[in-house]
Design goal:
5-stranded antiparallel beta sheet, 185 residues, HIT family, subunit A, alpha+beta, globular
Length: 185
Amino acid sequence: MLADMTSEPEKHTGAGVPDAFERLWTPHRMAYIQGENKPTGPGAEDGCPFCAIPAETDEDGLIITRAEHVYVVLNLYPYNSGHLMVVPYRHVADYPELDADETAELAELTKQAMTALRTASAAQGFNIGMNQGAVAGAGIAAHLHQHVVPRWGGDVNFMPVVGHTKVLPQLLADTRKMLADVWPS
């Protein structure tokens, strides 16, 4: 239950003293925040998850589809249900490093992702983009990946705006299966 915001907030005088804020604790995110398991170099043996994921089964790796140069995987830390990434197999950091075939396939799988998300979940819009470099917000800057985030009218409510918390209504394994089942050929 949320605190009654109409009453005067209690003053915070020390640890454990209540104030006017309810808190949602997500200690499992601390590993991500602190950068645990960040790649130390190129390749799966150096901790790059985008190099390691293709060796897993589609279900275990949350892979939706595989192509010759690029694959599509669900984001482990999604902004919205269905948030996926289009990732080249080759370990490159910067968009201009992609060759023509990789660039074309990345674009084609992005289009297919939009089609699948519209089919599976009636997505009304999308945020699509790449964060190039750590200073630009790339969580894993060493391996290029393009985000495809489905959006719906009203999908931003008080939880992310005020509570800095996102409520996701579906497990990642269920989302992966739903999208894989409708992925365009």
